[in-house]
Design a protein that fits this description.
Mean pLDDT of chain A: 94
Radius of gyration of chain A: 18 Å
Oligomer: homodimer
CATH superfamily of the largest domain in chain A: Winged helix-like DNA-binding domain superfamily/Winged helix DNA-binding domain
Strand content of chain A: 5-15%
CATH class of the largest domain in chain A: Mainly Alpha
Number of strands of chain A: 2
CATH topology of the largest domain in chain A: Arc Repressor Mutant, subunit A
Strand order of the largest sheet of chain A: 1-2
CATH architecture of the largest domain in chain A: Orthogonal Bundle
Structural class of chain A: mainly alpha
DNA sequence: CATAAAGTCTATAAAAAATATAGACTAATT
DNA sequence: AATTAGTCTATATTTTTTATAGACTTTATG
């Protein structure tokens, strides 16, 4: 399951995408529109900013805005940033790999093989689908 | 990521499958072979027993054993039992479904659509791959 | 039938992670 | 100068995960 953090991030990004024309959007506006604790959302938006996904502006007329088009923001990027590994086991993670103890040889480990396939199938979708793909179509 | 509980369950089941010919296997033997806390493993094996996956025998000569052939034990079954939902969001879970607030219509929710696809791709593997598939091939 | 072996059950503890909040600080606008 | 709005660091709370304890039941067998 994705954490609340990641779920909130998706909803915030969707809101930002749907309101690009309005310029910078207030944290408080996103929070109330999407029913997210404003302080919690602050942290999330900051992380997205530090990762280069969002830009921000302080002071009056400030707020957050997308730095790229929705199509250029893969879902996998957001999940990895806020949730960590997408793989089901550390030993098959591409970005957060950890060798498994008790496993002499990953090459002949059946668990490793199946979980690699699961990872690949998941990534094929999450790397190729972007923020654009989760915007509500009328 | 799969919990330790599920990971331990897989290792225990693999050990049981690889030693079917030896009759009932002691919890303590599995625990020491697989470096798992014996008390923690107890709980896990009990859950597997209550779910009808393992059988057990008390007293001398007792222990745990598989009730079915490895081929008849899908990986998805174990994961759902010990870890819960396989889907990334409650609103796309088949076995642990929860409606999402803030979402007027799942039918037109883009997030719902993508996450359903991820679930399907994952399940296609985890429902069809079984304990047999994760046994180490020489 | 007594004893020892081995799983069962219930409860609790400890640790880690997820979720949420507080408040002082900085930058931009007017 | 005053106000607005994001930034940063720290901490608190809650939930989940992981682990442990100990009394109880069943079975085998000498």
């Amino acid at each position: 399951m994705l954490s609340k953090k990641t779920q909130y991030a998706f909803h915030a990004l969707i809101y930002l995408a749907e309101n690009v024309d309005k310029g910078p959007i207030l944290i408080s506006e996103i929070a109330s529109e999407k029913s997210i604790s404003i302080k919690f959302l602050e942290n999330i938006l900051l992380e997205l900013k530090n990762a280069g996904i969002l830009g921000s502006k302080k002071g009056k007329g400030g707020g957050y805005y997308l730095l790229r088009t929705p199509k250029e923001i893969p879902l996998a990027r957001i999940i990895r940033l806020l949730d960590g590994p997408i793989a089901l086991l550390p030993c098959v993670s591409l970005n957060y790999y950890e060798r498994c103890e008790n496993c002499k040889d990953e090459a002949i480990c059946g668990l490793h093989e199946v979980m690699s396939k699961v990872r690949d199938a998941t990534l094929k979708l999450l790397e190729n689908k972007s923020l654009k793909d989760i915007l509500t179509r009328e």
